[in-house]
Amino acid sequence: MFLTINFFQGNTFAGGGAAQATIRSHDAHLRLQSFVSAYHGFATLGNEHVPTPRAFDSFPPFAVDLVGAMNVGGELRIQLQVPIAPVFHPERYRLLAKIQLTEPGKDRNPGLMRNYLASPFDAASNATVTIPNATSQSEYQVHARFVLLDTETGYRSQYLQQSFLIQL
C-alpha cells in the first residue's frame, strides 16, 4: 500500500513556516517524524488511519512494577502496575511492552524482543501483558522496554527499560 500525504499545507503546528516547505527542511522532517510516529502508534492500537496533525503533548512520568505472572493454557500472563497520576488521565494511554524471555541470568538481545500490547489499565493502574505460546518453564528472565501509547494522538513516549525475574 502506498500512502501519499500532504502534510505541508494547512498544518497549524508548522510554526509559521512556508506552506511550500521542501522535504529537506528541518521543520518538514520533524513533521514527517510526528506523522510516522502517530501512524505507527494508531496501527499498533489496531486503529490504523491517516492521523491529523496534533501538537505534541508531554507524556506523564511513569514507572512499571511487576505484580505477578502466571501460565494459563500455554499463555504467559504478566501483570504489571503502571502508576500514573489521575491528573494525567491514565485511561488515555496503553502500555506497549517489547519483551524478550530468556533463562535466568542471560543477557538481553534487542533483536529478539517482540511487541505485546497490554490490556487497558484497570482502576488500580494494572495492565496485563499476554505472551501466547510461551514455553513452559518455572522461571524466566524478562527483558523489557515499556512505552506509553497515547490513544488520542497515536504518539509514543520514550521507552523505559527494565529486566526482572518471574517465577511461576
Description:
The protein is mainly beta and 168 residues long. It has 2 domains: 1-56, no CATH class; 65-167, Immunoglobulin-like (Sandwich), CATH 2.60.40. It is built from 1 helix and 7 strands. It has one helix spanning 26-44, and strands spanning 65-72, 75-81, 93-102, 114-117, 126-131, 139-150, 160-167. Strands 4-3-6-7 form a 4-stranded antiparallel β-sheet. The chain is globular, with a radius of gyration of 19 Å. The model is unreliable at 1-14 and 16-26 (pLDDT under 50).
Map the helices and strands.
Blueprint: H1 26-44, E1 65-72, E2 75-81, E3 93-102, E4 114-117, E5 126-131, E6 139-150, E7 160-167
In short:
With 168 residues, this protein is mainly beta.
**Cα-to-Cα separation, first versus last residue:** 43 Å
Shape: globular
Q: Strand order within the widest sheet?
A: 4-3-6-7
How would you spell out the order of helices and strands? HEEEEEEE
**Number of H- or I-type helical stretches:** 1
Quickly give the structural class: mainly beta
Main β-sheet description? 4 strands, antiparallel
Key phrases:
single chain; 168 residues; mainly beta; Immunoglobulin-like; 4-stranded antiparallel beta sheet; 3-stranded antiparallel beta sheet; globular; disordered N terminus
